[in-house]
């Protein structure tokens, strides 16, 4: 699915995130909830006004899962199977929400990396995250 | 109708004042064409779109992006003052273009038509539907553009702004601008039939 060049771009972006999963994840969630408030309905355990600690904790978990995906570009389905099951059986996040999360992810990357966020990176990362979303929603029905 | 709070309008206007329309427009359109390659279908006459660097450096992409963004910035303000002044020019160009079968000349000329209809600045966000009514009809009847494309371009524009402003592009700023681009996209889709 991803060309060798795209994989390199994905890895390059991940190098910039690795070690900062909590901070990136927290900002991602904050942007998601601020820009698309309806997405909060999927995070009732975070409360109506998620505090910083909760965002950091949950954000880190989400970004660590993205890290797993990055390490297993050749076999996303196997690597993400538990998460796919979770989303299909428990979370059941409507598939329309994944593009919203992806948009916020792009904005986080763009605002942090600025000039380093090349168009090739944006294209590869968008393709990668979209692929992850497909795997996570594949078992819905 | 989209409603913008005073804080949102302030965030929108203050950031927009610092946007280099020429650069941001070309950047946004270029990124659209690279990240979502199927959007290239509207730009067959733009020459070399064979690679990311070819697209980002393509002078027609830059020029067209500048036109689109100028129109975006201009068009979200209240048109009342300009409608009377430019109505005849606008109709004249549009009526002439209706008989022109070539998409490229149509697109280019109609954009000039659109640009002539507006003035600078994000002033009035309270009448997006009225502001974009004619553009909406145009995109449906003449340009045959799927409204989904307006959302894609809007999202790419938000990313370009984030890249430009960095930390200054806070979640609240993003929220305000996502609201603007969604409002513009909806307004552009409003007259589709």
TrEMBL record, chain A:
Family: Belongs to the globin family.
Lineage: Eukaryota, Metazoa, Chordata, Craniata, Vertebrata
Recorded GO CC terms: haptoglobin-hemoglobin complex; hemoglobin complex
Domain of life: Eukaryota
SUPFAM superfamilies with a match to the protein in the record: Globin-like
Domain Globin: 1-141
Transmembrane regions: none
UniProt cross-references to PROSITE patterns, sorted A to Z: GLOBIN
UniProt protein name: Hemoglobin subunit mu
UniProt entry keywords in alphabetical sequence: Heme, Iron, Metal-binding, Oxygen transport, Transport
A biological process from GO: erythrocyte development
Annotated gene: HBM
Keyword Heme recorded: yes
Matching PANTHER family: HEMOGLOBIN FAMILY MEMBER (PTHR11442), HEMOGLOBIN SUBUNIT MU (PTHR11442:SF8)
Any GO MF annotation of the entry: heme binding
Automatic annotation (TrEMBL), chain B:
Domain Globin stretches: 3-193
Keyword Iron: yes
An annotated GO cellular component: hemoglobin complex
Transmembrane segments: none
UniProt entry keywords in alphabetical sequence: Heme, Iron, Metal-binding, Oxygen transport, Transport
Pfam families reported in the protein's UniProt record: Globin
GO molecular function: heme binding; metal ion binding; oxygen binding; oxygen carrier activity
PROSITE patterns: GLOBIN
Similarity annotation: Belongs to the globin family.
UniProt cross-references to PANTHER family, sorted A to Z: HEMOGLOBIN FAMILY MEMBER, HEMOGLOBIN SUBUNIT EPSILON
Annotated protein name in UniProt: Hemoglobin subunit epsilon 1
Lineage: Eukaryota, Metazoa, Chordata, Craniata, Vertebrata
């Amino acid at each position: 699915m991803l060309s060798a060049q795209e994989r390199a771009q994905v890895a390059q972006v991940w190098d910039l995130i690795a070690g900062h999963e909590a901070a990136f994840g927290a900002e991602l969630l904050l942007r998601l909830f601020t820009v698309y408030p309806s997405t909060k309905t999927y995070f009732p355990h975070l409360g109506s006004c998620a505090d910083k600690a909760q965002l950091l904790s949950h954000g880190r978990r989400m970004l660590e899962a993205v890290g797993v995906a990055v390490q297993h570009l050749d076999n996303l389905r196997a690597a993400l199977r538990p998460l796919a099951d979770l989303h299909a059986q428990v979370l059941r996040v409507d598939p329309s929400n994944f593009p919203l999360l992806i948009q916020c992810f792009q904005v986080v990357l763009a605002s942090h990396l600025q000039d380093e966020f090349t168009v090739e990176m944006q294209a590869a990362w968008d393709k990668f995250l979209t692929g992850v979303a497909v795997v996570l929603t594949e078992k819905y029905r | 109708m989209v409603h913008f709070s005073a804080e949102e309008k302030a965030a929108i206007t203050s950031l927009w004042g610092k946007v280099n329309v020429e650069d941001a427009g070309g950047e946004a359109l270029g990124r659209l064409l690279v990240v979502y390659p199927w959007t290239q279908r509207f730009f067959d006459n733009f020459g070399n779109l064979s690679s990311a660097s070819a697209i980002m450096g393509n002078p027609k992409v830059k020029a067209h992006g500048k036109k689109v963004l100028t129109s975006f910035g201009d068009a979200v303000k209240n048109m009342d003052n300009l409608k009377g002044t430019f109505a005849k020019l606008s109709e004249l160009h549009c009526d002439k273009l209706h008989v022109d079968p070539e998409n490229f000349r149509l697109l280019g000329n109609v954009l000039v038509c659109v640009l002539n209809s507006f003035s600078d600045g994000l002033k009035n966000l309270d009448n997006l539907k009225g502001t974009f009514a004619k553009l909406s009809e145009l995109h449906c009847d003449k340009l045959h553009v799927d409204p989904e494309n307006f959302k894609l371009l809007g999202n790419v524009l938000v990313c370009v702004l984030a890249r430009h402003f960095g930390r200054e592009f806070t979640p609240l700023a993003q929220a305000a601008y996502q609201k603007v681009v969604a409002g513009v996209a909806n307004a552009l889709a409003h007259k589709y039939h």
